[in-house]
Amino acid sequence: MVQKTLRRLLSHKCYFKCEMCDNSKFSKMYEYQSVSFVRGYIPKHFKKICGDCIYKKVYGTKDYKKKKKEGVLDK
Q: Residues 9, 14, 15, CA angle at the centre, nearest 5°?
């Protein structure tokens, strides 16, 4: 029983407040829910996340800028 990671682009350019970093931004808005490895635990479902936060969560803090420049999640 493997849960898929939910990450997708909701809109290309809009003004919103990021739910992770609490900054107001005019940029791409993503949706994210992480994988649960604990039976019976449902992780929080973020609906408004900025590009920096989603790439940090998915790829880690070391090489997220390289992946963001390539636009891996936008496809």
A: 125
